[in-house]
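Notebook entry, structure prediction.
Reason for the run: the old model in the group folder had no record of what sequence produced it. Starting over properly, with the input documented here first.
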Amino acid sequence: MHTPTNRNAHHCWVDAAGSSGRAAIIAGLPIPPPLLAVPSAHRRLRGPYTAAGTIIRAIAADALERFPALVAAHEIELLCVAPELRDLMPATHETLTSLAVPEERTRFYSRLRTLRIAHGLTEFLRDYVTAIGEPRSIVVDEVDRADQTDTELVSVLLRRLDPALLTLVLGTSDAAGQLGPAAERRADPLSVALARHARRYGAGAPVSPPAAIDPADDLRQLAAAYVGGDCVSDAPGLESAYLRLRPAERCALHDARAEQLAAAGEFSLRLGAIPYHREHGTDPSGAGAGSLREALIYCLDMGFYEAAVDFGRRGRAVLDRRDSTADPWWDFTMKMPTCLAALGRPAEAEEIYDYARAASTSAIVHAQAAYGTAMLYTRHHDEERRDHHRALGWINQAIAIAGLLPDVKDRSFQTVFNQNGLALILSHQGDPEEALRLVSAGLDRLDSELGPAEHRLHRSVLRYNRAQLYAGLGRLEEALADYTAVIEEDPHYAEYHFDRAAVLRRLGRDDEAMAEYETAMRLSPPFPELYYNRGDLRSAIGDVDGALADFGYVLEIDPGYVDAYINRAGLLLETGQRSSARRDVTAGLAVAPDDPYLLCLLARLELEEGHQDGARRAADAAVRAGDGVAEAWATRATVAFEAGDPALALGDLTRAIELAPDPALLFNRAIAHQALKNWAAAEADFTRVLAAEPAEAEAWLRRAACRQRLGDADGAGDDLRQAAVIMPDHHAPEVMVAGGVP
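New structure, fully documented this time:
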């Protein structure tokens, strides 16, 4: 593991107009030897992951030769950003989702997938440079013109990479003031990361006016140089020379450059420069539209949704609308809403569906728009706009259209597909049994009416959905059977193992659950929920160190993961590490200042450190923030009891029990009754505790004391004898149990 040796090391942000000016500043920076330099991260060059792909392609062969296990561990991330590497390292983790042909693709990745990829690449680069054994730097220019996938990656690299190991040098041209403090206030991830984790150089450097073209220069040669650089260069005179050419000459240059790039055979060029040149060449509505469509479909399937939306808009711009479902214009139009919904922009998606309905009489277009709109209203719109009843109307329209399709197999598949959407809406409306019936019937219909190799992906989706419904209904063995079956069909899909682990844990099969979590970790770039759940399981089985490590890793990849702060702080407090627990509580409250569980932990910390007033303030705040949270009331009860106010504790515990009739809360309320000499009420609560936990010796002892006070000597004797059987020589402490709900 790398140990930083240069505490003065820092990431560098070179913000100045002009690539030559930035290069001059970079040349003077005191940075480690460069691992490599990326002259431009401009998305026009290779689209998504232009910078990341350039980095990975440059070091892949060396990494594969020297550190093959490291490459194998990050196969998914490396092939995602540099698809050309498939010739070097064949994919071994393909899933039904990644293998599905476009016509059968019914599942799309979460928009968070690219964030997982970013974390995986960060760890690959960290471990690669660590294995090399010497600090390195990476220089990337024009980061502000990169695709969202690259800016997301850079943001993660800046936050997670130790600059003493791998120094980032990032060039931007902030002439429009898009970065820096103003952008940080807008919470743009790249701007926030640059402002927090990099030292800025060159800000405010004067902008030199573009040089005039020398009449002696060959105008066409300058323009050709501009196009040959894929129209991203800011070298003086190139763009102006290009603009002075006649349109036909410019188109010819774009055609020639597109052919040159296509001959290189590098797939990522088909996501950037090639479609750009095709759409600006002599055949924008033919070759241009075809190139843009290919890039759109690929980016949609890979989860590169910002790029896919861009390709969709550009594709529509080079075509005239025609009322034909075979026309590429409809591909561009109908795929964009899927991307917009995934990006959390459902209002824009709905506008496109409305436009499509108004522009077409095609049954297919109307069915797609109806299904998509239903999903917007049941899943994607904000809470105030969500409307499951309206969603029902749209999904029933889609089902009705599907039932009219002439082809038997198309009719079967489309009906089942849309009924799966109906099942989702019904589950949101609180009718999981009917949702389960629909999904099961859909599976049976596809099995009977389609061949075994047809629509394998959607069949697995249906079985997975049924497993989730079974789990929600508490039918755990049936859920487990479906998860097992879908894993047999699609063994490399990490989420299946993740969800199967949750069911195994509910069944008490902790060892198998742990194995499933670890399988999911091998099959996926890191995501916080996976490590959080394993940490929670480790905590439950007594592996405190393992749990602390997992919660710590969760917070490394997602510093805003509040539940990880809560659980880690709770473990630290239980193991006597109060100062560390307080740091976590403070950090968590900075993210979520009104979280009742964090406030409960703060109250416990204050109480343990003897700060009664601080404990009471924190407990009061927890109750205000979490009126429906039993632990908040229980914590305030503990604070009140320790302050000598059992009456207040009694009232708070009664409210806590109304919310969660847990034996621990009943036990504590019984103690409060004892303190107030309410012997009959205390006896009743201890009786309820013993009905739930008959092996609780202290409850037998305390009920014996209550019965003695009530004059029931025989009953008291019976309770004492029972306590002696469970735990000989046990002595009951006269204190209240702290901490609320276990």
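Summary: Confidence is low (pLDDT under 50) at residues 180-186, 732-742.
The old model has been moved to the deprecated folder.
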